[in-house]
Design goal:
The chain is mainly α. The protein has helices at about 5-35, 40-65, 70-85, 85-100, 100-130. It is built from five helices and no strands.
Length: about 130
């Protein structure tokens, strides 16, 4: 039964999603505990590290290593898909802006995608280090 991709693929994605969602929860809670909850530092950290991880892993998987399709999906669609939090980012941006906290709201709303792209690029670049 597990020799068929039709069973392996959803199982791999599900296992990755469980780990990603739990990681998101614990990191978000830990950051809020350490730095407070007045600004969505946890979501920002999760989004940036998720973008970095996506860039790093996909570059390794597509350019440097042979990784089984189920493992690629476990990491990208499963883990990173559940770990990153752009829906939370939108909600938190709206909340900051709706409270007329313009500087923080606009800084967060505009800064997150820009820093996300920088983090993604850094992930790609780091995965390519040492490539011949």
């Amino acid at each position: 039964m597990m020799q068929k991709a039709v069973f392996r693929t959803p199982l791999a994605i599900s296992l990755g999603a469980i780990a990603g969602a739990l990681s998101r929860y614990w990191i978000g809670a830990g950051v809020a505990y350490l730095w407070g909850a007045d600004f969505p530092y946890g979501t920002l950290l999760i989004n940036l590290s998720g973008c970095f991880g996506m860039g790093w892993f996909t570059t390794l998987a597509l350019e440097r290593l042979t990784i089984a399709p189920e493992i690629r999906l476990l990491v990208t669609t499963g883990f990173l898909g559940a770990y990153t939090t752009f829906s939370s980012y939108e909600l938190e941006s709206f909340t900051l802006l709706s409270k007329a906290n313009w500087l923080a709201g606009l800084g967060y709303w505009i800064g997150s995608p820009m820093l996300g792209m920088v983090s993604f690029y850094l992930g790609v670049a780091s995965a390519r280090i040492g490539r011949g």
